[in-house]
Amino acid sequence: MTRHDQISPSAAQNDRPAGLHTVEKIGGTSMSRSDELLGGLFIGDREEEALYNRVFVVSAYGGITDLLLEAKKSGAPGVYALFANADHDHGWSEALNVVARAMSEAHNKVLEESADIRAAEDFVRERIEGARSCLIDLQRLCSYGHFQLDEHMMTIRELLSGLGEAHSAFVTATLLRRHGVNARFVDLTGWRDESQPDLDERLDRGFEDIDLARELPIVTGYAQCREGLMREFDRGYSEVTFSRLAARTRAREAIVHKEFHLSSADPKVVGAEAVRKLGLTNYDVADQLSNLGMEAIHPSAAKTLRQAGIPLRVTNAFEPSDPGTLIDAEYGGATRVEMVTGLPVLSLEVFEQDMVGVKGYDARILEALTRHKVRIVSKSSNANTVTHYVDASLKLVKRAQSDIAASCPSARVRARKMALVSAIGRNLEGLSVARRSLQALEAAKVPVLALQDNGRAVDVQLLVPAERQDDAIRALHHELIERAEAEGPAADAPAPEAGSVAAPATLRSVA
Ligand SMILES: Nc1ncnc2c1ncn2[C@@H]1O[C@H](COP(=O)(O)OP(=O)(O)O)[C@@H](O)[C@H]1O
Ligand SMILES: N[C@@H](CC(=O)OP(=O)(O)O)C(=O)O
């Protein structure tokens, strides 16, 4: 049975019947352990037919995109960042060798047969050397001055990103075929393809002759397209490919496989034994998590799935029999804190005595932040101060800061490192989350620099010193999840009265 009809560009997506298949994404951390996935997620005890009607969208092996572009957390330069600052220097070229070695290490860990390893080595060589020639040519061309490197940097970023996912998808398809699965490498990275399709066309072309009932597509999480996946979505783009593919093919369900169950806090911070698995949550909570960089799911991906009416499941890749967390658009749910998470931020505070009663300051600040592509996590204001909590490098924030200083000459602008820690849940009304959080942080001797509760009863945010982020997460998790659970079950509705001291007793286990 072919599914070509289901992804034809002319059909209105939402009118088509849902397919039989699922679209499933595997993140980089889990991909690095894909040898362990063979006996479970990929094959396990599945008989012939049960192997199929699944589409896997894969990320690059852990750390590879960081080496290709720049480290997501520390900002340490990779090939892209070195090339961008290169002039005539070839430091980026050595960085490309580092990528090739890291790729080789990754596939040597998962492949066993020497023929497969050889094929993977050849693949890496062909792609890496192709990219190297391209960069050398571009550098030479731009040395004439008529050609501006800046104009091509986004294309370079796209080209480099695609290398990571092409490699991991190629290796995974090879691995599965070796184990008797009819897997097909679906390369959406546009390698040596001169046409410029848009994302939907790219997906349609990749799937036009695939029979989902008897083939297992292993799809690159990077998809080259006219819009530019990196330009629009930047890091975390494989979830965008994943969600668009799920919507385009009318998947029955979209599944994200992660290294752990989606839990009440990062198990690496709070401890695997202390965290609770989330059974069910909604897109509102998922949005808050993405905003804090938790990437339960990329915000654009969540939107695509929500609009297409496709249920999203987040599972632990290494426990395939566990149903994981279902993220449902409609679910209102019980009153409880479901998760505690945090993010290092810079607080950009603009204080201006003349601001009182005058409009326009906010707009000027926003303009500067937008111009320098500074991601805003949260903001607050009072009579004469507007503070944005942002997730960006100090370099970018400094640039925005000087633009703000220029457009608001008498303002005092200051940037400080902090951590934003947040307690998140579907319906926090009446739970005294703010009060309990302050008490817990005081007991743990974590200073609170600011507190925000916008009244929607979905989250409470606390700003703490950057170096106390993990202490704050542990203290809040202990108070709002572990202790609250011990105090009694949650009520579904109605919520207890605001400020009620009995309210915490309405929290319940999220396990
Ligand atoms: N609430 C949470 N539940 C589960 N994992 C979390 C949570 N918060 C942070 N993490 C961390 O996220 C890390 C990356 O997870 P995962 O999504 O599997 O990686 P990738 O981005 O490579 O797909 C995990 O190793 C875990 O430490
Ligand atoms: N590898 C890409 C795309 C991605 O989404 O990765 P992951 O699923 O590992 O977060 C990145 O780091 O941006």
Secondary structure: elements and pairs:
Elements: E1 22-26, H1 28-31, H2 34-42, E2 54-58, H3 64-68, H4 79-84, H5 91-110, H6 114-142, H7 153-178, E3 183-186, H8 199-207, E4 216-220, H9 229-233, H10 238-248, E5 253-258, H11 267-270, E6 280-282, H12 283-291, H13 299-308, E7 312-316, E8 325-328, E9 339-351, H14 361-371, E10 375-381, E11 385-391, H15 394-407, E12 412-424, H16 433-443, E13 450-452, E14 459-464, H17 469-487
Parallel strand pairs: 1-2, 1-5, 2-4, 3-4, 5-7, 6-8
Antiparallel strand pairs: 7-8, 9-11, 9-12, 10-11, 12-14, 13-14
Helix pairs in contact: 5-6, 6-7, 8-10, 10-13, 14-15, 16-17
Bound molecules: adenosine-5'-diphosphate and aspartyl phosphate.
Adenosine-5'-diphosphate is lined by residues 27-30, 62, 258-260, 262-263, 265-268, 294-295, 339, 341.
Describe this entry's structure for a reader.
It is a single chain. The chain has 511 residues and is of the alpha/beta class. It has helices at 28-31, 34-42, 64-68, 79-84, 91-110, 114-142, 153-178, 199-207, 229-233, 238-248, 267-270, 283-291, 299-308, 361-371, 394-407, 433-443, 469-487, and strands at residues 22-26, 54-58, 183-186, 216-220, 253-258, 280-282, 312-316, 325-328, 339-351, 375-381, 385-391, 412-424, 450-452, 459-464. The protein has two domains: 18-251, Carbamate kinase; 339-508, VC0802-like, CATH 3.30.2130.10. The protein contains 17 helices and 14 strands. Strand 10 and strand 11 (385-391) form a beta hairpin. It starts with 21 loop residues before the first strand and ends in a 24-residue tail after the last helix. The model is unreliable at 1-13 and 493-511 (pLDDT under 50). The structure holds adenosine-5'-diphosphate (ADP) and aspartyl phosphate. The site of adenosine-5'-diphosphate has 18 residues, from helix 1, helix 11 and strand 9.
